[in-house]
Amino acid sequence: MDGRVIAVLLALILCALLVIIVLMVRRRSAGPAPEAAAPAPRDPFAAEDQVGGDPRTIKAGDMVEYLGVRYFVRGSLRLREGGFTWSEHLLDADTIEGTKVWISVEEDPDLEVVWWTEQDVGDLTPDRKTLTLDGVEYRRDEHGTADYASEGTTGAGDKGRVEYVDYEAPGGRYLSFERFGGGAWEAGTGERVPNGTLTIYPGS
């Protein structure tokens, strides 16, 4: 083999070795790969943590599951008092014959979902600061009048006004009175729905 050819080959091999050495030195000097940025702090009770959807989007035709029982949403009341809004949703209550079951959803400022069951309270009316029902003492929390619009089946007119009086007891228990258009009082007891226990199946 010609000596010049051998010299060229040796030069190429030397250049290749130099390139490999330079790349290895650069990798070592670069240090370990930077760690991923820590996730930003976030609200543990934010709506996206709700199992199976955001309660604020519930509407007639949806299905909700609570404590292992599924219910269809028959209709909704959208209520407004000043700049404050909230919703109440009537469910089909096949497991509780003749009794209305509702879910209320509001933000004040945190998202609060309450499960309501209609109650026959006899002559009890919201005319005192404290009321006792079934051995539980409730203390009056709010009293006001709101405008409402009805969607689907609710038992109320398409639009109107409703007066409400809300009572609260320890342990996330509630007693509420409502009367539509100055009619008779309707009462219900409520319990706060723990975060992540309500599953929502959107309707078509």
Strand order of the largest sheet: 2-3-4-5-10-9-8-7
Number of strands: 11
Could you describe the largest sheet, including whether it forms a barrel? 8 strands, antiparallel, barrel
Content of β-strand:
over 45%
Overall SS class: mainly beta
How many structural domains does the protein architecture include? 2
Q: Give, in order, the helices and strands.
A: HEEEEEEEEEEE
| Helical content (DSSP H or I, runs of 4+) | 10-25%
Describe the global form: rod-shaped
Q: For the terminal residues, how far apart are their CA atoms?
A: 82 Å
Number of helices: 1
- Rounded radius of gyration (Å): 32 Å
Mean pLDDT: 84
Query: Could you list the spans in which at least 5 consecutive residues all have pLDDT below 50?
Result: none
List the helices and strands and how they pair.
Blueprint: H1 3-30, E1 63-66, E2 69-81, E3 84-91, E4 101-107, E5 111-119, E6 130-133, E7 136-152, E8 159-169, E9 173-180, E10 186-192, E11 198-201
Antiparallel strand pairs: 1-2, 1-11, 2-3, 2-7, 3-4, 4-5, 5-10, 6-7, 7-8, 8-9, 9-10
Structure description:
The structure is a single chain. The chain is mainly β and 204 residues long. The chain has two domains: 1-33; 52-201, no CATH class. It has one helix and eleven strands; from the N terminus they run H-E-E-E-E-E-E-E-E-E-E-E. The protein has one helix at residues 3-30, and strands at 63-66, 69-81, 84-91, 101-107, 111-119, 130-133, 136-152, 159-169, 173-180, 186-192, 198-201. It has an eight-stranded antiparallel beta barrel. Strand 2 and strand 3 form a beta hairpin. It is rod-shaped and about 115 Å long. The termini are far apart. The model has no long low-confidence stretch (mean pLDDT 84).
